[in-house]
Amino acid sequence: MGESKLKHLQREEMLLSCAGVQTAGGRVRVRWETDSAATPMGQLAYFIEFLTLTGLWSCWQDRCPLSYSSPNAPTKADVLGTWLLSILSGHRRYSHVTTIRCDGVNPGLLGMNKVISEDALRRALVAIPEDNGVSWLDGHLRESTAPLLDVPWILDIDTTIKPLYGKQEGAVVSYNPKKPGRPSHSYHTYLMAGLRLVMGVEVKAGNEHSGSHTLPGLLTILDELPAHHKPKMVRGDCGFGSDGIMRELEARAQPYLFKLRLSKNVKRHIERLFRVSGWCDAGQGWEGIDSTLALTGWEDTRRVVVLRRPLRGEMLVAQEDNGQQLLGFIEADRKGGKRITGYEYAVLVTNLDHEILSLGQLYRDRADAENAFDELKNQWGWGGFTTHDLHRCQLSARAVAVIYNWWSLFVRLANPEARLEAMTSRPWLMSSVGRRTEHAGQTTITLTGQHAYFDKARQVLMRVSSQLQTWMSEAAEQSNAPSVWLRCCDHLKRTIAAIGPPAPLRLLIHHANRVG
């Protein structure tokens, strides 16, 4: 078909697409533009600038152990860019990649030729060698947190269960609190408290959910860190208060704070202390008492802090299949033969020498880490991106964690007053209609707001962009000057130390005063 005929057909199609539609407000004309370059994530250009100037994007590509022999294969930028855009969009399935294939703006900003298909992305992950791929992503997880570790910080550890609905490798029926009887994977996570940055994640079979399966990854992280970067404390729930974990930490002189299960021997210990004097304030309605305990199977006697608070009203006490109390262990104290005072108990084990008030608050602060695990599972890709083989699940979990860290730090640059979850930060700092036009060799992206805080987003993103470009100029002008990435991390440390999130979430001052 000749060029003139092709233009004639395109003109006719455009005229047909301008046909009017009848609406409640009257008849309107609708025009379909299939060739224009637009995106629903127009503000993402500022995040791409952050990745570019800090070198995070180029390093991620350069170290990727993906190689193709076919000249028709997609480039690394195409594969990793598609992966990045999909995760940032909040996708949970590879099939969701189809929704971003018409993005005509952001792929070009990342140096991509195109957004590849979901099948091409799956095949690309298969082509990445398992050991090399894990080392590559673990290295980026370490580097995304390393410049921030020279201040007092806490390492939270936890295990998250992900139910599965197909025939995946490692899908085993085991402990599953949300879907009993459903096969699952277990995600063992190591989190930097306060900033909520992921330091490591491992995907294991559903029956490998206990603390003993978390221990190897924990020791790897601790042993790799230099002395001045080690956490002031390792913190975990009752799944990690076992003798094996505590002995390994004690051998490394690593402080820890764990919660104990309310086993029969722990309950007997509570009964012995019930009427003992010396209970002191532990904050937020709790009172505590210091003691020592040597449970069966423990090689040493350890410091144990028993916390309790009176129950108000009625409290249902359920019991799990393993005999563990679900909502708490309650003691009853009869006063005057009529009144019954019930208590809710929590028992902490630690090798710290802090007073009870500080220990109680330090453990309650762990609730902030639970929010991060919930965000990663429900607002990012940990609840999906499942394949038949465990290898690609490992890579996807780590990739989600890396991109989550990058986005979290970028959002803190834009909003240093408090940390925002993806449910809030994505619409605010990412979503706007972006239209790309080119004229006289100049590319322009025109943004149109989609939310009420568009003007505030414009102000903070322009401020972040200006700061990044200033750091870039200073790094280029000075020899042996810190990189933009290091300047960015130093700025975050100073800013958060001066402003900080709400009191229970403080990383630098709040935790330093208690742990340092």
Please sum up the structure shown.
The protein is of the alpha+beta class. It is 40% helix and 20% strand.
Low-confidence regions: 323-338, 498-516
Question: Could you tell me how far the N terminus lies from the C terminus, measured between alpha carbons in angstroms?
Answer: 76 Å
Sheet/helix structural class: alpha+beta
Q: Would you report the number of β strands?
A: 15
User: What percent of residues adopt helix (DSSP H or I)?
Assistant: 25-40%
Quaternary structure: single chain
Beta-strand residue fraction: 15-25%
What's the Cα radius of gyration? Answer: 27 Å
Number of helical segments with 4 or more residues: 17
Kindly report the average pLDDT value. 87
Overall body shape: elongated
Largest sheet: 10 strands, mixed
InterPro entries: Transposase_11
Domain Transposase IS4-like: 152-406
Protein name: Transposase
Organism: Aromatoleum bremense
Descriptive keywords:
single chain; 516 residues; alpha+beta; three-stranded antiparallel sheet; 17 helices; elongated; disordered C terminus; Transposase_11; Transposase
